[in-house]
Amino acid sequence: MTYPLPAFHFQVDWQGTQLAFSEVTGLNYEAQVIEYRDGTEPEATVQKMPGLKKFGNITLKRGVFSGDNEFYEWLNTIKLNKIERRDVIISLLDEEHAPVMTWKVKNAWPTKITAPDLKASGNESAIETLELAHEGLTIENA
Known about the structure:
10 strands; eight-stranded antiparallel β-sheet; mainly beta
């Protein structure tokens, strides 16, 4: 019997560095629809054609670790209309830690960071949220 893959075993790799995240969301792809109707068309319907591709921002959540500065160094490269863009690979892994589904993200750059909520009465881990903008998403199913 075949079962769907669990969503909890994944890795995120950017430019050869693998970082640990507790959650990844926003892996979506949309082709906008162009509607067109030729005036000589005998049927009173429109044709639908694929238009521009549209990709949502990717949101990553991770625990805060002392001395883990790689993302902040990347964030600090942002200048007006200039940024170091990186390709990011997100892989869903099987039991042997081999990639089964892969999302290849093109020309990603950090657009937002949200610090963890700090509460003196809390006992949960400090989780920060990172958001990446990008210019393309390729999905591969091994």
